[in-house]
Amino acid sequence: MRKTISVVLCAAAFIYTIWYMHFGTPYKNSGALSTIGIEHKGLFVIWGVLTFSALAFSVTLAYKRYLKTKVYVPLLIVSGIGMAAFLIFDFDYDVRLNYFLHCAGSLIFSITMGTTLFLLFLLCYKKEKVFMIFTYLSAAVLLIDLLMLLIFKENALIESLPIFAGYIMLSIVNLGRDKVEIKR
């Protein structure tokens, strides 16, 4: 049942993110998720809550299924605080404190959620081949995203690339079959 909830949440967040991005031009700076949120604050909050919920639920399920550590708990708390700041404070350059807190929240959410995912795959590296692939894939997505951000600046496609990758990779991991141990 939890696997299904995880995949449904990720699918809903994936679809909502694509729909939300239609309010701007996804490949331009004006299409950044925060920029769209200036005109559509309520929709932006829904996007943030849905995105965090999908990722946090799926991360929690994956860590509980594959690892004995609870290292993800403080990381998700920090990530949630970042998402809250990202959503609460406006992306308004004229009010510099709001602008700073909004951007800091975005970075805190992105960095800690990305670290949580990468750590999951890295700690499970030798358990299954999918984790080995996802370790390299998540590292590549984060590096490519950083390079694209530095070159092209902020836009919806660059912002959402690691989020989409997280939805997909977590859904695949959580849909994985449970191994059955035969006890003698």
Gap from first CA to last CA: 29 Å
Structural class category: mainly alpha
Instruction: Give the CA-based shape.
Output: globular
Gyration radius, rounded: 17 Å
**Strand elements, count:** 0
Helix proportion: over 70%
Biggest sheet architecture: none
Low-confidence parts: none
What string, H for helix and E for strand, traces the elements in order? Answer: HHHHHHH
Number of helices: 7
Mean pLDDT: 86
Report the portion of residues in β strands.
under 5%
Itemize the secondary structure elements and their pairings.
Blueprint lengths: L1 H20 L11 H7 L1 H26 L5 H17 L7 H28 L5 H24 L3 H20 L9
Helix pairs in contact: 1-3, 1-7, 2-3, 3-4, 3-5, 3-7, 4-5, 5-6, 6-7
In words, what does this structure look like?
With 184 residues, the chain is mainly alpha-helical. It is built from 7 helices and no strands. The longest helix has 28 residues. The radius of gyration is 17 Å and the shape is globular. The two termini are 29 Å apart. The mean pLDDT is 86.
Protein traits:
single chain; 184 residues; 7 helices; 77% helix; mainly alpha
State the gist of this model.
The protein is mainly α and 184 residues long.
